[in-house]
Amino acid sequence: MTTPVLNLKKVRKTFGNEVVLEDITFSVPEHTATVFIGASGSGKSTLLRCINLLDQIDDGQILLDGEDISGAEINPDEVRKKLGMVFQSFNLFPHMTVLHNVILAPTKVQGVTKEVAIEEALQLLKKFGLKDKADQYPDRLSGGQQQRVAIIRSLARHPRLLLLDEVTSALDPVLVNEVLSTVRDLKNEGMTMVLATHEMGFAKQVADEVCYLHSGRIFEWGSPSQILESPNRAETQEFLRRVHDAGRL
Amino acid sequence: MSNKSGRGSFDGATPYDFGGPWSPSDIELARRQARKKRNQRKALIAALSSFLVLGTLAIIVVTSPGWETLRNTFFKWAYGFEILPKIILGFGTNAMLTVIAGTSVALIGLAIALLRTSRSPALTPFRFLATVYVDVFRGIPMLLVILLVGFGIPALQIKGLTNNVLILGTLAVIITYSAYVAEVIRSGILTVHPSQRAAARSLGLSHFQTLRHVVLPQALKRVTPPLLNDLVALIKDTGLVSILGVTDAVRAAQIQTAKTFNYTPYVMAAIVFLIVTIPLTRWTDRMLRNSLEKQNAQGQA
Known about the structure:
The structure holds two protein chains of two kinds.
Chain A: E1 6-15, E2 18-28, E3 33-37, H1 44-51, E4 59-64, E5 67-68, H2 76-80, E6 83-86, H3 98-108, H4 114-127, H5 143-155, E7 161-165, H6 173-188, E8 193-196, H7 200-206, E9 209-214, E10 217-222, H8 224-229, H9 234-245
Parallel strand pairs in A: 3-8, 3-9, 6-7, 7-8
Antiparallel strand pairs in A: 1-2, 1-4, 4-5, 9-10
Chain B: H1 26-62, H2 67-74, H3 77-117, H4 124-139, H5 142-155, H6 165-191, H7 194-202, H8 207-237, H9 249-260, H10 264-300
Helix pairs in contact in B: 3-4, 3-6, 3-8, 3-9, 3-10, 4-6, 5-6, 6-8, 7-8, 8-10, 9-10
């Protein structure tokens, strides 16, 4: 059996007295997408931030390609070079053009020369239909375009694993689709991903495995059709019923 | 999206008749007329009120019993223009002081701001000292700092330390203004949203790279208008070093008034300062307005 790209073992995270994540264990094999669903405050975002070492875990282990990245001696900057993260609120750098947003990490972190980085960035932008936006500043772009640039910015670093944190939550319904189709393209190309999302239909399309997170614990996991269509646990059923009532299924 | 002619076109072949080119309706015309009338009335009221207030003030001043004397001692223009070159020469010192102090203050203020916002444990003692420094020198009137530095340092009689009042005065200005500017820059750094930092760190940028490429450029852009404000204040406050005997514009005017007991040189010095500061203030205002507009526009996006 090959080593999974990501492997979490009994991860626990607390903020003060509040337990945010408890006993989180799962693994993500290469070229697969694991999707976390659950209500706001269930710990989805914290989980992604912990994997990216933006938050420190309080117990357990996180392994990336079999290597413990939660160890005391680990340099987070080195780990993050292998990870890509896309945020709910895009977080593009407003003082830089789209192109500069994309080439910042390759030139400053990966040590790629500017010419090569620009060429590669333009290729990526072209591939995702944003080449004409290269010299624009982020505030001139629609939300969907900004989020796609944020995804491209992560891709330009050739991450081993892409973390997507509710990437469509800040977008209006019309713009959601362009971002989702970008993510679908990545999935088809074999990118390994962990996603947190409220879009159940989308989860069904891209996920190899769906995990239902409830007050910091993985309550149920399995194939998308099993979790989303015939969940076993009452909490999952209740959650999906509420999502359905809100018209998001 | 697919239908360019609008909602009226049913089969795409026969566009809906929108009734020809638009011309303003009677309702709109009436509205415009009313608006125009209202604006005219507003302008009339503004003019009338200005005329009344300013006119009254002028009459009070001009008809006051001491007006003639005042005019002769403060507004003797012929005399004023005669000594103007001396004041302009003195203002050269203010200008030089502004450039030297301004540059130093920018660098020192930035360094202190970075120090105070850093979290490195190795810098703890410096962080503490920086906090004390800022607290102390923001709380002392600059005139006192100038007197303390200008008379205190020579009194130490340490060999190699300068007695040059110009250098000591400049030093005092730098000490005080660095404390102000450090706080302005620090507040700018703190207003950059944590999510920007998170994004930069998640891209693998180090703490320093994040600061250098992401946080500082945004922070400095935001604090440029208040910093320009401080620059205007700095230009004026360089006049305070005259108390040490530095021959700047204020001192030059003082020397003239001591000779003739006519205060027109002070008025001339004031005018020289205004010629430099007013355009700068206007420019700062414009920049502030632009950056506010931009921020608001971003908020809507």
